[in-house]
Amino acid sequence: MDNEKLMAKIRRVGKISIAGIILYFVYVVAGAVHGAKNTFVDGFREGWNDYDPEAADAALTASDILGIISAFLMIGIIIFTVKSAIQLVLGLSKNTSPFCEKISRSTRDLGIGLILSELISAVLMVVSKMPVDIGFSWLAGVIFYAFSLIFRYGTELQREADETL
Predict the structure, then answer these.
(1) Which of 47, 52, 72, 102 is deepest in the core (most CB within 10 A)?
(2) CA distance 71 to 61
(3) pLDDT, tens digit, for every residue of 30-60?
(4) Helix runs in 46-61, H state only
(5) Number of folded domains in the chain?
């Protein structure tokens, strides 16, 4: 298969992937907003706004603070991971060779984001006293990180070949 046909396929897959990433992100955000709305409405109906003097005097515990920090970290990691995935797909569809610094960096960032999201998710589960459920996104993160090393090595080889000519 010649380069032009291959690049056309990469561009097509890239557009589909970006649309999928955006739709998935919208789906996750919509689910979170819907869940928060239902929690707020149900809590309000059950006397959520009642004044409780003992609860008013209670201070945030270390577990509460860690939970809040972890939640904000998780949001940041998700945004970072989605941004890295979009940059990777756009970089693959625009460049003639996957062996460039931008692709290597985007692949590395995607891997790191997936690993960190799994770790932060585990911390959130521990803090909220839920059973810890470790998924496979950490493994995908390790695989993406390994691919980034391959792309980095390919980038070095490409640079050396270009300098030789």
Answers:
(1) 102
(2) 15
(3) 766 665 555 555 555 555 555 555 655 566 6
(4) 53-57
(5) 1
